[in-house]
Write a structure and sequence with these properties.
Elements lengths: L1 E2 L9 E6 L23 H14 L17 E4 L13 E4 L7 E4 L3 E7 L5 E6 L1 H5 L2 H8 L7 E5 L9 E3 H8 L9 E3 L6 E4 L1 H12 L3 E4 L14 H4 L5 E7 L2
Parallel strand pairs: 3-4, 8-12
Antiparallel strand pairs: 1-2, 2-13, 4-7, 5-13, 6-7, 6-8, 9-11, 10-11
InterPro entries: Cu_polyphenol_OxRdtase (IPR003730), Cu_polyphenol_OxRdtase_sf (IPR038371), Cytotoxic_necrot_fac-like_cat (IPR011324)
Protein name: Purine nucleoside phosphorylase
Keywords: Hydrolase, Metal-binding, Transferase, Zinc
Length: 247
């Protein structure tokens, strides 16, 4: 049902990423779809969320976002309550037992904590959000120094499968010439590239001063039995990546 990140997090910080297994949703959302916006049966989604909370022993219901590939990161506290999910693509907190969460199906899920376990964040970054600096803006909003942070990159589409056009190449290379190294021109194609999203975000975080970066190296596209993939299937479910500070 879920994957535990392999990183040297503080003992009071807990993190996990779900896969697509162990839920109740029917195809094409089979089976642990956690998203309400993909035309799955809402009753199944809420049952899946209840299963997740029980199986993972979450301290509270995760604070779900209305993700729209924005550059918006919101701060959460123990008093935070939304009647409807807020439009944002990242969330962070210093409060205990508050669970920031992001959903993905090829985009980058990035979980962040500091070495002392005083602050945690969850970021959703597709190429649009990454180009709009959602990661930079989130990290710069945190009340800790970047050198004290560590990050984990969860299951996402790998460079082997992520074909993009000239527009995506230009968006990144025009920002930083170093980004050119993470685009590989496809042989026999005109203005088509294979883009390395984990590589791009790792460079961005390193340039911000984040030195502890751990990549799961799990490809959502290639592992069909384990993960949802929007690029592979189109109509499909979503995994969730979450992190929290234990009281």
């Amino acid at each position: 049902m879920f994957i535990t990140p392999d990183w040297p997090k503080p003992k009071n910080v807990h993190a996990l990423c779900t896969d697509r297994l162990g839920g109740v949703s029917s195809a094409p959302f089979n089976s642990l779809n956690l998203a309400t916006h993909v035309e799955d049966n809402p009753k199944d989604v809420f049952q899946n969320r209840a299963l997740l909370r029980s199986q993972a022993q979450l301290p509270a219901e995760p604070i779900w976002l209305n993700q729209q590939h924005t550059d918006i990161a919101i701060a959460l506290t123990s008093q935070t309550h939304f009647n409807t999910p807020p439009i944002a693509d990242a969330a962070w907190t210093q409060s205990t037992n508050v669970v920031p969460v992001v959903m993905t199906a090829d985009c980058l899920p990035i979980l962040i904590t500091d070495n002392k376990g005083s602050c945690v964040a969850a970021i959703h970054a597709g190429w649009k959000g990454l180009a709009d600096k959602i990661v930079t803006k989130t990290i710069q909003s945190l009340p800790v120094e970047s050198i004290d942070l560590m990050a984990w990159i969860g299951p996402a589409i790998s460079v082997r499968q992520f074909e993009v056009g000239q527009d995506v190449f230009d968006a990144f290379v025009n920002q930083n010439e170093q980004n050119r190294a993470f685009f590989h021109k496809k042989i026999g194609t005109n203005q088509k590239y294979l883009a390395d999203l984990p590589g791009l975000v790792s460079l961005e975080m390193q340039n911000l001063g984040v030195k502890q970066i751990y990549d799961s190296q799990l490809c959502s596209f290639e592992n069909e039995d384990q993960f949802f993939s929007y690029r592979r299937e189109g109509r499909t479910g979503r995994m969730a990546s979450m992190i929290w500070i234990e009281a």
